[in-house]
Amino acid sequence: MAEKLQPPRGTQDLVGDDYRRHAHIIETAQRIAENFGYESIATPIFESTSVFKRTIGETSDIVGKEMYTFEDRGGEELTLRPEGTAGVIRAVISNGLTQNMPLKLIYNGPMFRYERPQLGRRRQFHQLGVECLGVAHPYVDVETIALGVQILKALGLFDQTVLEINTIGDIASRQAYRQALVDYFTPYKDKLSLDSQDRLVRNPLRILDSKDAGDQAIIVEAPEFENYLNDISRDFFAQVCAGLDQLAIPYKSNRRLVRGLDYYNHTAFEFVTTDLGAQGTVLAGGRYDGLMSQMGGPETPGVGWALGIERLALLLDSLTDQPRPIAIIPVGETAFADCFALAMKLREAGCTADIAYSGNVGKRLKRANKINAQVAVMIGDDELANQQAIIKNLDSGDQKTVAISEVFEYLSN
Questions:
Q1: What's the rounded Cα separation, in Å, for the pair 291 and 301?
Q2: In the CATH scheme, what is the homologous superfamily, with its name and number, of domain 16-170+230-315?
């Protein structure tokens, strides 16, 4: 018996309502982002591995444990993208767009990480993200967050989320805080998980992200970042909060919300929900003024976010506003040509029309109901001889005889 083929573990086929939800999220976000001046960009789904090692960092779990990396036939090491920002910044540099600042770019597509599949977390998943490059003003952070708010509201999901926000300060503040964490965690080194012991040397801020129960018990008393912020960092964050207040965007301060990579600075934020279990973050972002220069480009401020399409799709209700088709039912081969011409005329006018190609009248009407058709247009030999068509309302069951030459106008009305 032949093996039953299935999608690879951690992936899914998008069909029917699943596909419609994904498309609805993308179309909604792109429409609203255009109002904010964003332009679409698409980058390859695989990049040179160095693009991600240089940006995400070789000490991160993504690079160390989760990336799909392979060597192609030419001996080049390539990686399926685990996130979108690095590829967008690479594209900006590669295409000489650093001379066109400021830039507002929006992207979407599949990302890939090898991790244990669970609700809202897959090995191939889809993200939509925005990157605003070339502006250092704190109100750009506010604007970027406000874009996320408008998208979530348009999807009807804003009330299911909470905006959590924090400042991770400028470079000077981060260096001071880093040393404070090293001083705090060093006496507990033997009690930390192996991952956190490694992070203590390489990137102590990432210990705060640990999900290990033993680590979390130690983290509770760790120094607060707030105590190590300089005046520049405090003022920047105060302006961001003032901008959110001005727009009446509610938010919650989360002092444990950090970004472990060195190119992140100032604002960090997440929209989280309690309706998806452990995978509660549906949109996350922050400021990354050091990323462009780390990738070989000029010093360029940047801020952006990415949303998880699968996670938002899980929160969406079934989409019920799909256009209902018109079922065209030829009764016998003689009427087929006229039915086909009518269907094409309806489609050219922007209507959704479906032709029933086979089966008796009963089966063809069952198909019409299955595709949720609003009306069925039936033409058989007798109708053709009289140049008439039977139009049946599939909701009420009422039917009417109309001249074939008037069917298009009748349906249009």
A1: 8
A2: Bira Bifunctional Protein; Domain 2 (3.30.930.10)
**Assign residue 317 a region: left if phi > 0, alpha if psi is -120 to 50, beta otherwise?**
beta
The annotated binding site is made up of 83-85, 113, 127, 131, 259, 263-264
Q: How many CA atoms lie within 13 A of 207 on its CB side?
A: 34
Beta bridge partners of 391: 377, 400
Q: Half-sphere exposure of residue 316, counting CA atoms within 13 Å on the CB side?
A: 25
pTM of the entire predicted model: 0.86
CB atoms within 10 A of CB 40: 11
Other CB atoms within 10 Å distance of the CB of residue 268: 21
Domain edges within the chain? 16-170+230-315, 326-412
What's the pLDDT tens digit per position in 104-159?
A: 999 999 999 998 888 878 999 999 999 999 999 999 999 999 999 999 999 999 99
**Contact call for residues 169 and 208 (beta carbons, < 8 A):** no
| CA gap 255, 328 in Å, rounded | 61
- Please give the annotated binding residues for L-histidine, written as ranges: 83-85, 113, 127, 131, 259, 263-264
Residues 21, 27, 32, 38, CA torsion sign: positive
Nearest to 129 by CA among 271, 299, 304, 340: 304
